[in-house]
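--- STAGE predict ---
source: upstream dedup step, 1 unique chain passed
mode: sequence only
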Amino acid sequence: MFVTAFLRPKTGYRSVDVYFSEFEKLAGTGVPVLLFLDKEFLDRSFPPNVRVIPTTLDTSWVPHDVVLPAHRNETKDTVEYFCIQLMKMQ
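--- STAGE serialize ---
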């Protein structure tokens, strides 16, 4: 089973349509997928091999005084984006 998540950060790196278009390629292979999906997108439909778990982006476990790297992509390297990446490892 492939496990992934789609959570919308406050600042978008790519458009939502780009992300879902790429995900459709994966879902179309027929491999079983467990998708943690932002509740904002529960109106979307997925093939039977995709099991959706509604969720929200929770950044409460990140300290409010976290210091981001000085040299970073200002659009992509945000606290919210880092939280999304770290949630995937849990």
